[in-house]
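As a warm-up, study this chain.
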Amino acid sequence: IDSMEYSLNGEPKREVVPLLILNQSSNPLDLSRFSHFIDSSRIDCDSRYCEYNESAYLIVSSSPALNSIDKELSIHLLDVSFSQTGSYERLIEKPGSFSVLLDLNGERLVFEIVDSSGQLWQLFSEQKIEPGKSYNLSFDYDRTAMRIFINGELDSYRELLDLSIGKSSNDLYIGGEASGYRFKGRMGGVFVYNNSLLLKPHIGVLNP
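Now compare it with the structure written out below.
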């Protein structure tokens, strides 16, 4: 799909263009089948990106496709810009499976995977994130290593062999969740794959 729609408090439907989640066969999931929540502060979107604030976030309900993430994982967050840094913020998270966040000092990206035994594995970016700067971010696990790419360049790497990614019935959160620590800034395309091989064709076009 190219977009999804949501209705807030009986208002006319509004379109959210940037969000796209794909399954292993590369066929787009129909997000209209899932529930979405945006609070009264809204997430303001145009054709390129959405602006998030401290009190707005998006939920995509758990589904068999999201739960099919098992041995490999690839996440792309395009045209990401932080309004500020210096604080802990969640960008995308499926509790019990994986997450991407800004660390407790609000300086570096953290790619997290929870394995099937409940153990947490983390990879921190080498590069510090600057407020107001636009980034294309990719996070990959291919059965051999966790990797973070920033603007198409490999930033950090952690060898991790034959990990089984945890399966949970939790929803997918974008821009934060109910407990707080929400993302403040701009985010364009959101792509989640359960096959790391799908990362490679994107790397060459992620450097703006």
